[in-house]
Amino acid sequence: MSTLSERLQLLGIQIGAKNFPRPQTAKTTYPLSAVLNVSTHTTIFGEAQYIHKTYAANYQHGIVNLSAPIFGQMLASWGQAVSSNLSRQKILFLDTETSGLSGGSGTFAFLIGLGYWNDAEFELTQFFLPHPESENSFLTAFDEFVSNFNCLVTFNGKSFDVPLINSRHTLNRLQPPFPKAEHLDLLHLARRLWRYRLTDRSLTSLEENILHLSRTQEDIPGWMIPQLYLDYLQTQDARPLVNIFYHNEMDILSLAALFLYLGDLLEHPLQQPIQPHGLDWMAIARLYEDTDHLEQAMTLYRASLNAGLPMSFYLDTCRRFAKIYRQQRDWPNAIALWQTAAENGDPLSCIELAKYYEHQVGDLDQALSWTNQAIQQTKFSDPELTKRLNRLKQKISGKTTVFKE
Predict the structure, then answer these.
(1) Would you say 350 and 342 are in contact if contact means Cβ atoms under 8 Å apart?
(2) Which fold has domain 4-267?
(3) Average pLDDT of the residues in 38-64
């Protein structure tokens, strides 16, 4: 059996689609209109095909209701360029299905799924490319549709979907469709929040583990999609495409649900109907700390420690929490956290205690004691610890009277 790359070459997919072969005449064909409710939109280049669906205002996708309020402050803070005033009617969820998974000038999108709110309802529009030579009308219809939106939400769209769409516009001598739109890529945030407890942060994994949703048997693996489309171009049998449309539909719905869930989770991490894992609270606390929301970070560090963490994360959280207290010169709370970590075998916290007693209190005996404990807990020889130990001994014996660290 030929590889997907060989099939693409045989079908003439190089830079453009002008030389793409016409499908072979089949005895029986099943057009897309025979299996799905297809509509058409007329452009200056010809007609474009699309599917449209509407979901009721109370539509439930896993644990998320798509009519839930949008909490955009922390999403905007993390996304930097994204405005905190996210207008519901201006948000567009986008996901593509393509002729190949590796990108490149020969890869093109044949299905673009778009999700958006219209008043309280959620709507889905899927633009379909029946043959590569119709790409101009396909892209033009897409452009006309997306012009009213100013905030794009994707899952890996910054690295894949949007660059691919832009490159196809360039190759077809069309202007890229998102010159000024803000772009929030949830893949990067998902990786940051769940990398500590989920080995797989794909959208389907997040559906199961975070949104508590399972797809039906209609779904197919993403890696099968390019081959099914190439088969369709040859056979004109659209029946297998139903599974691709379902896959894309679920991606869009899950993207919207994940967007709502993340906004609520980041704004109200301690008030979730399903209590997050302690590692989730820890990850959110780190995000709060990195975006200078220190009070919220401290609250979540405390919650994650109380919820229970694997030891390596527990020790790191103690150190991060203590660092904030140290910056605030709240020594009693910083000391308590360092001592807790030190009692659990953390040499770095022992060193922090040694520094405190040497430089803040001037208690050299305590500083020496904590340095010795750090050496005992360190599994390998540390020249810096040895240097600190010798210096403290000299200071205690009176041989060194002045030291500046």
Answers:
(1) yes
(2) Nucleotidyltransferase; domain 5 (3.30.420)
(3) 96
Please give the average per-residue pLDDT across 294-319, as a whole number: 97
pLDDT confidence of residue 127: 98
Looking at the DSSP bridge assignments, the partners of residue 40 are 49
CATH code assigned to 278-397: 1.25.40.10
Where do we find the tokens 């993403």? 222
Measured at the CA of 313, the angle between CA 309 and CA 315, to 5 degrees, comes to 100
Give one DSSP letter per residue of 324-387, joined into a string: HHHHTT-HHHHHHHHHHHHHTT-HHHHHHHHHIIIIII--HHHHHHHHHHHHHH-SS--HHHHH
Strand residues in 58-120 grouped as ranges (E) = 60-61, 64-65, 91-98, 109-118
The pair phi, psi for residue 104, each rounded to 5°, is: 100, 165
The Cα 1–Cα 7 span in angstroms is: 10
* pTM for this prediction: 0.87
CA distances, 398 to each of 330, 351, 358 (Å): 31, 22, 15
Distance CA 241, CA 17 (A): 21
Q: How far apart are CA 217 and CA 225, in angstroms?
A: 15
Rounded alpha-carbon distances, angstroms, from residue 228 to 15, 23, 221: 21, 14, 11
Identify the weakest region by mean pLDDT among 15-24, 270-279, 342-351, 387-396. Answer: 15-24
Domain spans, the chain? 4-267, 278-397
Give the Cα-Cα-Cα angle 320, 325, 330 (nearest 5 degrees).
160
Q: Give the type of residue at 156.
A: N
Position 373 confidence tier, pLDDT thresholds 50, 70, 90: very high
Angle between helical axes of 364-377 and 331-343 (0-180°, round to 10): 40
Cβ(203)–Cβ(155) below 8 Å: yes
> In Å, how far from its chain's centre is CA 86?
18
Distance CA 273, CA 270 (A): 9
The DSSP H or E segment spanning 321 is: helix 311-327
Position 22 scores a pLDDT of 55
| Tokens coding 167 | 């490159």
